[in-house]
Backbone:
């Protein structure tokens, strides 16, 4: 395939060259070859994008009805769905996720936008019974300019997650995609233009974290930051946002416990546990990377899960036979390899995997890897690898399962398998996670609020709950009484 060159940023509804002229290279993780280049925005470009967003906020966008905003989101959704295959191909070359997954993610992103298109004119304030002679009510108004900073593992999905609620509530957005996977962001920008959104409502500035990213989160003209990524970066963003008291919402990953009790439907549980650990090559914030198995079925579950892991086809992202692709970057592959070595150093045993798949001489590939023999306090069981590495840990009692599950600094997703209805409710109530699933895992959906406890983040994505993250609540009191007000200074 020929090299793809993108040389313009999307600012104020127009395509503009970056002020510095700098560029970023995108490496195809299946081949380790540069396949595309994109502009590398800097602080000056972010200034222009924020100014364009502010002008749009104060201009035609603010005069559109909520219903009209919703229709524009619905139109953008239709364009995403129309171009799902071509966008999926860009995504697969950019981040290494198999084509069948990326095309599906683009189609689901369209559903996210449709959902928020429908929600745009359903959000309303309240009438408050304040006192006779006065009409008191609340208005829900946009926060303003939103800086959206997205990760490299599921780019187009996260564009929809952030733009949907932000635009539905009347905000404007400056989007800074991950520097490793920015190609699809510029393709997305063309759809924003074609959907008819007013200039400046969405601005897209690919760039490095230390350049465009820092400039955006610290910019005085930005009112809110929505970020998905590591908690270390979230801490830096919070410090940068502190001077302006910006609103922030963070989704910062997890080390998700997936609990299998002995009374579970083991066939279903093992199938889902395998998928939850290795989907997207483990590069998912909600990967079920700690599998807790009741001791009386531990050997049975471990053997069956190992057999399933060994039949996963690892291969190039564009190969239709591929189940999971490469890691997105050499850096991420090196990180995963270091954690595999660390697990061995900590006394763990590799049940399967741990190396490079046979026949794949190039690309950032690693086998699905299953560890056992590690304590929950080990680094491999505590730290987010973001690779296809699963730690299997036995437990004896319900109390022990809950204690192990909660013994982590994260709290994004948790799951459990049981036929006992009472246990399902007891354990769900006690698990410290923003999303708990019973007899399934990670049912992420546009209707379900999603976010974390502890270091997994602040605030929520998705569902109607996220709309409150993007509005200011204004109380208004109109006094219509005829009585003269009491003059406290009369005497």
Residues:
């Amino acid at each position: 395939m020929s090299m793809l060159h993108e040389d313009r940023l999307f600012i104020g509804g127009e395509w503009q060259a970056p002020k510095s002229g700098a560029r970023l290279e995108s490496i195809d993780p299946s081949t380790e070859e540069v396949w595309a280049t994109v502009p590398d925005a800097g602080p000056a470009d972010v200034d222009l994008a924020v100014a364009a967003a502010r002008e749009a906020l104060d201009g035609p966008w603010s005069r559109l009805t909520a219903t009209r905003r919703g229709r524009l989101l619905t139109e953008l959704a239709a364009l995403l769905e129309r171009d799902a295959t071509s966008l999926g191909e860009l995504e697969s070359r950019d981040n290494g996720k198999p084509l069948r997954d990326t095309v599906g993610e683009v189609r689901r992103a369209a559903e996210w936008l449709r959902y928020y298109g429908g929600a745009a004119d359903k959000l309303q304030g309240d009438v408050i019974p304040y006192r006779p002679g006065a009409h008191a009510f609340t208005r829900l108004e946009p926060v303003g300019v939103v800086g959206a900073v997205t990760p490299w593992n599921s780019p187009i999905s996260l564009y929809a997650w952030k733009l949907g609620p932000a635009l539905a509530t009347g905000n404007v957005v400056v989007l800074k995609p991950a520097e490793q996977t920015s190609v699809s962001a510029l393709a997305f920008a063309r759809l924003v233009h074609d959907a008819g959104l007013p200039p400046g409502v969405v601005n897209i500035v690919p760039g490095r974290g230390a350049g465009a990213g820092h400039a955006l989160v610290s910019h005085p003209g930005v009112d809110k930051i929505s970020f998905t990524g590591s908690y270390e970066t979230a801490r830096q963003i919070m410090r940068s946002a502190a001077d302006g008291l910006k609103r922030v919402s963070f989704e910062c990953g997890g080390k998700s416990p997936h609990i299998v009790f002995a009374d579970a439907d083991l066939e279903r549980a093992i199938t889902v546990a395998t998928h939850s650990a290795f989907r997207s090559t483990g590069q998912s914030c909600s990967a079920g990377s700690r599998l807790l198995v009741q001791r009386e079925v531990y050997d049975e579950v471990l053997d069956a899960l190992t057999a399933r892991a060994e039949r996963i086809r690892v291969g190039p992202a564009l190969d239709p036979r591929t189940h999971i692709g490469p890691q997105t970057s050499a850096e991420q592959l090196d990180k995963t390899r270091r954690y595999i070595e660390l697990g061995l150093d900590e006394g763990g045993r590799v049940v399967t995997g741990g190396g490079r798949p046979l026949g794949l001489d190039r690309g950032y590939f690693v086998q699905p890897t299953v560890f056992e023999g590690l304590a929950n306090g080990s680094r491999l069981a505590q730290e987010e690898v973001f690779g296809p590495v699963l730690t299997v840990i036995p437990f004896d009692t319900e109390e022990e399962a809950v204690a192990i599950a909660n013994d982590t600094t994260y709290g994004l997703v948790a799951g459990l398998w049981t036929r006992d209805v009472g246990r399902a409710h007891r354990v769900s109530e006690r698990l410290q996670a923003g999303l708990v699933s019973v007899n399934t895992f990670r049912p992420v959906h546009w209707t379900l609020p999603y976010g974390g406890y502890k270091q997994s983040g602040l605030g929520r994505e998705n569902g109607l709950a996220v709309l409150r993250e993007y509005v200011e609540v204004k109380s208004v009191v109109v006094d219509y009484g005829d009585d003269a007000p009491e003059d406290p200074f009369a005497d």
Observations:
- Residues 99-119 form the longest helix (21 residues).
- The CA atoms of residues 274 and 305 lie 6 Å apart.
- The mean pLDDT is 97.
- The chain has two domains: 4-252+452-475, 257-438.
